Amino acid sequence: MKIIITGGAGFIGSHVVRLFVTKYPEYQILNLDALTYAGNLENLRDIENAPNYRLVKGDITDQAFVDQLFATEEPDAVIHLAAESHVDRSITDPLAFVKTNVLGTVHLLNAAKNLWKPKGYEGNVFYHVSTDEVYGSLEMGPEMFTEDTSYDPRSPYSASKASSDHFVRAWHHTYHMPVKLSNCSNNYGPNHFPEKLIPLAIHRIRTGQPVPVYGKGENVRDWLFVKDHATAIDAVFHKGQVGETYNIGGVNEWQNIELIHLLCDTLDEKTGKPQGTSRQLITFVTDRAGHDLRYAIDSSKIMNELGWKPSVTFEQGLSQTVDWYLENQGWLDNVTSGAYQDYYRTQYAAR
Ligand code: NAD
Ligand code: TDX
């Protein structure tokens, strides 16, 4: 089987590519990635020479390129992760999110339909990896997002992902494309770009800079270790029902400020600093526009139907993550130079 994995040089995509390349040596894995600021081939150094792996550098916003690629490579399946993924960037540049997340997804759907439909879709799957943010925002309390929760996206990022989910389902209903979808909560782990909360905080603490906490730090996120998201994607790809959606999450809700306290204390302990040192870096800053209050995801469908469950507790996953960043400070130094500095200047100017 030949699988195109899009966005394979990014955070989650690199873990998915590694899992598929090593677990399924009989598959050919093509990593289709534009190598934007978020795509980093360092994330794949250990498997880049594997005989069943190949990188195709290209942009999914280019329909002609995508059509040509599908016509020449004739993939059997697509696992689609390529996206603009950062909510704050979507607030300052929404159009980039429409282009990659909406148009890019439709380009892939078109190319897959043109290749597969004449042969009756035998052995084909188009799998869209999506987010829990499409469901909107929850109040504090016990309520969780299920697969039946109505869509209510509230940021340009989540609106673009909701739109792409709808297009994927439309290709299933209209053209009988065999599709699968999953909507996952916040991921954390190695290779996470330091514009997102956890790697940003680790980077700022290690360099002794203020750690920005939006608003009062009371927003809640449900965190899942990235390697557990990769095994969930493996389960959905191989065992999920065509046309179905699976929610994926860690049943692991944290208020941002509590999470930052835990990170500060973990870093103090691991770097031999007196407890309380890193907490002094916490700085409350202007809130994110339209900041969703709480996400929490009910994963019982994937657990009960596909037998998936997370392999690590949050404490284990966070400890492994902090160790990885402390052991790979060169990775952080490389991605936080140059363009990263410009991004931070524009973020704070935009508030
Ligand atoms: P990321 O930003 O780390 O990586 C995105 C990758 O896509 C990069 O390698 C980038 O180069 C590539 N890419 C971007 N635009 C492209 C284009 N036009 N053509 C080809 N490649 C392009 O993202 P991530 O955090 O790894 O997220 C991956 C997917 O998972 C996204 O679809 C995201 O919506 C979804 N998701 C992420 C999370 C999370 O917590 N990070 C949670 C749920 C779902
Ligand atoms: O500097 C910060 N300070 C802060 O308080 C940053 C970057 C974030 N935050 C807050 C905002 C959120 O409440 O921390 C929380 C997490 O923020 P992000 O790491 O930006 O993640 P989030 O906005 O929740 O979205 C993430 O999870 C769902 C991913 O970026 C999405 O791609 C995914 O779909």
Automatic annotation (TrEMBL):
Organism expressing this protein natively: Hymenobacter aerilatus
Lineage: Bacteria, Pseudomonadati, Bacteroidota, Cytophagia, Cytophagales
Keyword NAD tagged: yes
Transmembrane segments: none
Gene responsible for this protein: rfbB
Family, per entry: Belongs to the NAD(P)-dependent epimerase/dehydratase family. dTDP-glucose dehydratase subfamily.
Keywords: Lyase, NAD
EC numbers: 4.2.1.46
GO molecular function: dTDP-glucose 4,6-dehydratase activity
Cofactor needs: NAD(+)
The name this protein goes by in its record: dTDP-glucose 4,6-dehydratase
Reactions that this protein is recorded to catalyse: dTDP-alpha-D-glucose = dTDP-4-dehydro-6-deoxy-alpha-D-glucose + H2O
Secreted among keywords: no
GO biological process annotation, one example: nucleotide-sugar metabolic process
Alphabetical list of PANTHER family matching this protein: DTDP-D-GLUCOSE 4,6-DEHYDRATASE-RELATED
NAD(P)-binding domain: residues covered: 4-320
